[in-house]
Amino acid sequence: MDAEKHNEAAVLPALSTHSTTTVAEPAAVQIRNLNFFFGQGDLRKQVLYDINLDLPYGQIVIMTGPSGSGKTTLLTLMGALRTVQQGSLKVLNQEIVGLARSQLVNVRRNIGFIFQAHNLFGSLTASKNVEMAIELTDDWQEKRERAVSMLSQLGLEERVDYKPKSLSGGQKQRVAIARALVNQPPLILADEPTAALDKKSGRDVVTLMQKLAKEEGRTILMVTHDNRILDVADRIITMVDGRLETDENLAQFVSSHDPKALDRRMFVM
Known about the structure:
Blueprint: H1 2-19, E1 27-38, E2 45-56, E3 60-64, H2 71-78, E4 86-91, E5 94-95, H3 101-108, E6 111-114, H4 126-134, H5 143-153, H6 169-181, E7 187-191, H7 199-216, E8 219-223, E9 235-240, E10 243-248, H8 250-255
Parallel strand pairs: 3-8, 3-9, 6-7, 7-8
Antiparallel strand pairs: 1-2, 1-4, 4-5, 9-10
């Protein structure tokens, strides 16, 4: 018996050491101890508190929470659209804290942005609006074909030569989404991407994003209040009062929320 205990004791430390060894998963976004403030002096107000978050490659992450909780502020920091004040923020393996404006522009070239406001050029057709994004890169080959292909994937194949004034609100938003996706960015940041879309159009958009994440390893962060699209998420993060309150998968999220507020039928593809 003593010999057996001795042998068991000799083995246990090795097992314990092995079980605590983990390999860090590559992340498109890595945030450590991030704080953010608006205003100065007596008017200075903290809006983000000690944010720590990783967004691995190939994941779709949905961020939800009450209005004014800091979701959009955090998204714009990830997109190098604001200056990080405190903490560390790495985007596509590059620390963006302390970068010059020209360097931040280069970071943004590898990010696809989808905002609530479509911001289309009224004098340009849908295709030309998407082609403008292609012209920001060094690869101009077949830009018309690429723009039309992306618009067609979003159900706009018959609207490629229409100007924004001739498009519905939902169609304008899909043009903006095509513009964000056409250059195949490794990171996509979307603020309420389905807010202006009907059920079918919204489903088409998130299904395309899901395909990009799973088949091409893109990382997608969507800020949304739209419960209809939660089923595509690998993780659902809840922000409250500038803090990351929860980080759950879909099943955990549904079970931890009021069933009267969340109809499980919303999550059926």
